[in-house]
Amino acid sequence: MSTVPNTPRPSVIQLAIKEKAALYAAYIPLFAEGGIFIPTTREYRLGDDVYVLLSLPDDAQRYPVAGKVAWITPARASGSRTQGVGIRFPQDEKSRQLKLRIEEVLGGALASDRPTQTI
Q: pTM for this one?
């Protein structure tokens, strides 16, 4: 009998962003593929697979993203930043479309100096 390594299934997170300001704070333009910050107290490791169902402001569609944890903001992080994980979008056409949609929603806000929850 062969043993198969126990690979955990990716966790599924539903993230509904209701306001443009919240989307601005969570979006990660630093990643070439785009990414999103997800506030969570759950423990993750870098590289963990995460399946996100993302809803954007004023958009009835839910966007499925099979991303990876690219950074972690721990509890009690400096600067009173929110605990959570940064998810890097995969390099695929659906993610490219999602990145374009997010940047369309944010418009000129992307050039803002306002602080975000991201790096």
A: 0.80
